[in-house]
Design a protein that fits this description.
Blueprint lengths: L9 H11 L13 H12 L66 E2 L5 E3 L5 E2 L14 H5 L7 H5 L22 H13 L2 H10 L10 H16 L5 H6 L8 H10 L19 E2 L21 H4 L8 E2 L21 H9 L1 H6 L8 H4 L6 H9 L3 H4 L7 H13 L3 H5 L18
Antiparallel strand pairs: 1-2, 2-3, 4-5
Helix pairs in contact: 1-9, 2-6, 2-7, 9-16, 11-16
């Protein structure tokens, strides 16, 4: 009897790759309380959560900007406008890291938040956060709610600086609180909120068993998370349809791109699992620019600041890839405004770093570009071994196919931008919209 080779179709090969990588259609049911979602909706767009009352969560994560801000580096406190039209306030600097998209953050598979994973779910050990022992460990619905506790404590993002006056010409009392006392910042914010009758009503509907005087910012954070999950969870991309069994949902190019993506040693090495991220830090050899995160030098050393591990120097958490074609600029600092260029960088990070087109950056960021030979050497020496020890090979057709697959991850609802901002919020402050 002659044994012949069985020729598998492209779909059969791809299905085998998906099984091997434990990729499956999303069946997770998200149960959200409508009253909590509505409270979160108001909070998300209300600038009352910022020290100067001039910026809201939506200013950097707007639905019409695909849950981001369309900027390489965000413009925080003191800024005006939205997206590429946003104007920096006098005497301010950019926020050092790109505003990440916030699609599909309700998945139970998430166990880290932020580019440096400074918020983590450590199971029985509890929440790991920058607030250490001052962080309230109880009462959170999910890790996204834990994340929501921190932008309001950041001077650059929402809290403001000592000496700032709010838009009404009054002293910014939040800025006066020591950063070593985050619990006092959260308390002060709740005092602002419960001084507004409409918020008292909204909290009462969302938390009927908690008296107003016993409310804390934990409840506000849970509501913010509920709204974000409700507003930015879609799961209706061609990729979702394919995973659910519709083999016609993807083009042949997209299927070939998926095969390349799931090829051993390829993209799936870091963009793994159903979330398409291993949630681990990697140094991809991204150029440094902007104000940085270090008080002495304008550099962002990445996850090493949190972990203390030398291998985490210039390393940042792998981003998820849902709606990636919509959510540029890409990388932890928005270094690329072209998705194909972003993909090509992965093929040879050291070379891409050396040849990075500085002129592509906004003018105000070009002057902060770190082209010092010593800095470039340190970045290249610590590029993740997954990329440094072997150059990922891809021909022109494979790059086109991979790009096509990235577009297959675009959810139809995200493309249509169906989430709407409220016309008014309880504080009466202006709502950012386009």
């Amino acid at each position: 009897m002659l044994l012949g080779f069985v020729h598998l179709s492209l779909d059969q090969e791809l299905r085998q790759a998906l099984i091997k990588n434990e990729i499956q259609a999303n069946t997770e049911k998200l149960a959200l309380d409508s009253a909590k979602v509505e409270l979160g909706r108001m909070l998300f767009y209300d600038k009352i959560l910022s020290g100067n009352k001039d910026i809201s969560c939506a200013s950097c994560h707007h639905p019409k900007l695909h849950s981001g801000d369309a900027l390489a580096l965000p413009i925080g406190v003191g800024g005006t406008g939205l997206g590429v039209e946003r104007i920096m306030g006098e005497g301010r600097e950019h926020i050092p890291r790109n505003s990440p998209e916030i699609f599909n953050r309700g998945s139970s598979e998430w166990h880290t938040m932020f580019w440096d994973s400074r918020v983590q779910d450590r199971g029985e050990k509890g929440w790991y956060t920058p607030a250490d022992e001052k962080f309230p460990q109880e009462g959170f619905d999910n890790i996204l709610a834990v994340q929501a506790m921190f932008p309001v404590t950041s001077r650059d993002e929402m809290r403001g600086d000592i000496g700032d006056m709010d838009i009404n010409g009054e002293v910014n009392e939040l800025a006066l609180i020591s950063p070593a006392m985050p619990q006092s910042i959260w308390f002060a914010l709740m005092q602002r909120l419960i001084a507004i009758p409409e918020y008292v009503e909204l909290f009462a509907k969302a938390y009927p068993d908690i008296p107003t005087e016993e409310l804390s910012f934990v409840q506000a954070a849970n509501a913010l998370a509920a709204y974000e999950i409700s507003a930015f969870t879609y799961m209706d991309s061609p990729w979702d349809e394919y995973l659910a069994g519709d083999e016609e949902a993807l083009t042949e190019a997209q299927k070939r791109g998926a095969m390349f993506f799931y090829r051993e040693g390829s993209c799936v090495s870091c963009h793994s699992g159903n979330l398409m991220t291993d949630q681990q830090p990697h140094n991809l050899g991204i150029p440094q620019f902007g104000p940085g995160k270090d008080i002495d030098v304008p550099l962002d050393f990445g996850q090493i600041v949190e972990s203390g591990k030398s291998e985490d120097l210039f390393a940042f958490r792998t981003p998820p890839l849902r709606n990636v074609a919509l959510t540029g600029p890409w990388m932890h600092n928005g270094a690329y405004d072209d998705l194909e260029a972003t993909i090509r960088h992965h093929l040879n990070p050291a070379e891409a770093l050396e040849k990075y087109p500085i002129q592509k950056l906004p003018e105000e960021l070009q002057i902060s570009f770190q082209d010092d030979a010593g800095v470039l050497k340190r970045i290249k020496e610590t590029i993740d071994p997954l990329l440094a020890n072997r150059q990922l090979q891809a021909n022109e057709q494979e790059i086109k196919d991979l790009l096509a697959f990235m577009h297959a991850l675009t959810e139809e609802s995200a493309k249509k931008q169906i989430t709407e901002a409220p016309q008014n919020v309880p504080s009466g402050l202006a709502v950012d919209d386009m």
